Amino acid sequence: xxxxxxxxxxxxxxxxxxxxxxxxxxxxxxxxxxxxxxxxxxxxxxxxxxxxxxxxxxxxxxxxxxxxxxxxxxxxxxxxxxxxxxxxxxxxxxxxxxxxxxxxxxxxxxxxxxxxxxxxxxxxxxxxxxxxxxxxxxxxxxxxxxxxxxxxxxxxxxxxxxxxxxxxxxxxxxxxxxxxxxxxxxxxxxxxxxxxxxxxxxxxxxxxxxxxxxxxxxxxxxxxxxxxxxxxxxxxxxxx
Length: 240
Fold this sequence. Notes:
Blueprint: H1 7-15, E1 19-21, H2 45-54, E2 66-71, H3 74-91, E3 98-103, H4 105-111, E4 124-125, H5 137-141, H6 159-168, H7 172-187, E5 200-202, E6 212-213, E7 228-229, H8 231-239
Parallel strand pairs: 2-3, 2-4
Antiparallel strand pairs: 1-5, 6-7
């Protein structure tokens, strides 16, 4: 199902191109992140259909009803409907088969917990994540580790979790190597565990004058004390 999602189209249609499609989890700007296109299956509908067939299904319709839980915003609904359309096109799902349910964010969190009532737990849901600090540990450990995170997918612990813990106290160069291996274990092309399906990282456009030198903040608020204004250049441009 992840390989049947066209991330580029999703970002273009739903978010007006203000984002970057992702194939693995840790995004640009976070220490330890890998280049975007280096690891991950991404959009590969042929692979998606092969995997569905290997699982014993001719097409999506044999899977029965699929409950897709999302939050109550209009954007979340549009995203879910867009993804449903992609699954209909690539996997031959039926529209009424994929039931989109909108709930308050607190309910979404409650119904996707490990100990959630099985009758309330959905088959598919979407959630976002933003860094508390720009380090891969805050992504790979705090979101995906089998015991160090909420582990909403109920994934069993394995070697990859040991690697994540090992990275905590390792020297920087070794941490980079470990995080590369972890991303491969989770999202490696055609053979990763894919505990979740990364879709995109948010982005926004910044308009600046040529006489202002800034380094836009990747996380947190803008650091206005680091802005530099070239007053001479500003005066010249104002006179033109």
